[in-house]
């Protein structure tokens, strides 16, 4: 979903208004005198040459062994991308290059568990049916080989496909649209269906003898929804600001929602990331505490779930109604904005909210290359205008085969400052860190404990002087050299350019990358450069330093993913006039090779859809890609797309299975 617009009406776009009112610098004065080409090369400093020259030995160590893929099969070293670039198009289909196939799979409403209720096109399904079917608006996704936890994770024809369902489109979810009386939601059944269409699906799938993929009836198939019981762990567990009527001790909650991009751990679990959760809540209080105001909680909610009577719904009303926090839901919004770990191989397991990773509009979570005996390091962006990029370093070392349950509970959270020199610093958000304490004193801000810091992550980042970014979306790490790439999708509210965000305003977005200067990725310094400025031919710069062209122009980069040979796959989330009348056509997916600078359009999605979510089998013969919100804004009377089922049917988000017609590796 694109969050650029400011529509906050009931059933609005789900976008969040900018809420960073800090005075953090845009370091605009530092960029003066830099040409765009210098900016692309990473600024002016020493780090730039090192960056462009070669990877550090430590980074090379972390790469896959040359010439062998994750399935243990040899792959050929490439010199150019072996497909013809697609032209931009506006058709109601998924297009891929000649020689490839794209097949829709598990659309919204596919039965996966319980009584396996069939999707009903016209009558609509019940709330309970929806809890047993694939949810709406597919987003981040990961394929776990069936031996991901029990073996080497190299099985390519059988596994668990785990995917997020970011939000709901009420005009399509309900056959006749939602029932609203005098501006209020009145149907508990409708709202329950909406709650159940959110969350995560776990689907066991197998490749048949014909090479097609099928959903297996399996006890592992699972729906996690916006009502599923969860634990809260890490430094904020049990904090006074997490106490609610449901959880007087502040250690449990219900549900996850607005799950955008994702991650997965080295120990075979799934990470789902809570992005624009603030809009699900309302508070009628005149003055909101900082842990609500800095996140954009307002006096009305996006879907009006808080309008209904009953504990399941009243929890979305954060108004103070009782003398004590454990008698109302003033703190319920503090249970959201976290990263949630789900064990997909244990269907009865209770998902865990990992508070050590910080609380913000988490887009996703991506790990630096992991090595036994070293801490785990991971990165997450806060996707809102002028928010930040974060890094987490575990206190303890990764030990394969042993319990790594505490790695995401004990560690240090940092936020990024991108300097115009081409270097950058990770600034600790740690109440025991001397610089952090000095920053708090200078700002006149007090945190009671580390839980308070994490619940107020954005404020902590403001205080230390993090760099305001152009909406950080997905990250990806190049397995060949450990470089970290992040998409900055666009920023209509930027008024002052800086080195890392060089356009003001930034309608088209860009991709930034950095290389850690420490051997184990855990240090505080990095060297950065810009990889790509998206946009039309007249206002863009590709990975080869040249303007983009008909084969690769794009705008609003969002999803990022590296294949194991170090090619970067880029997905777009354009909306509004950029999508409908711009030179970019429908949303798309491109492949870029950082080694050669080559970049080509590989896929174009159907009308009104976003392309988001990507994962592959270890043998790289199957690529899974998600198509979200085809025909966005459709109602039963006005279908703006009928993908994937064809004329007269409601558009449905779905996964697309991409393979080569000859059955070989994709590239
Ligand atoms: Fe849900 Fe930032 O995209
Ligand atoms: Ca987006
Ligand atoms: Ca996204």
Keywords:
Neuraminidase; nine-stranded antiparallel beta sheet; 13 helices; binds calcium ion; alpha+beta; six-stranded mixed beta sheet; 32 strands; 667 residues; single chain
Short description, anyone?
It is built from 13 helices and 32 strands.
User: Can you list the ligands bound to this structure?
Assistant: MU-OXO-diiron, calcium ion
The level 1 CATH classification is Mainly Beta
Category from helices, strands and their pairing: alpha+beta
What is the count of helical runs? Answer: 13
Strand count: 32
- The fraction of residues assigned to DSSP E strands is 25-35%
CATH topology: Neuraminidase
CATH architecture term: 6 Propeller
Strand order, largest beta sheet:
15-16-18-19-20-25-24-23-22
CATH level-4 homologous superfamily: TolB, C-terminal domain
Measured distance between first and last alpha carbons = 29 Å
Sum up the overall morphology in one term: globular
Q: Radius of gyration, Cα only, in angstroms?
A: 23 Å
The profile of the biggest β sheet is: 9 strands, antiparallel
Name the average pLDDT: 92
> Into how many domains do the coordinates divide?
1
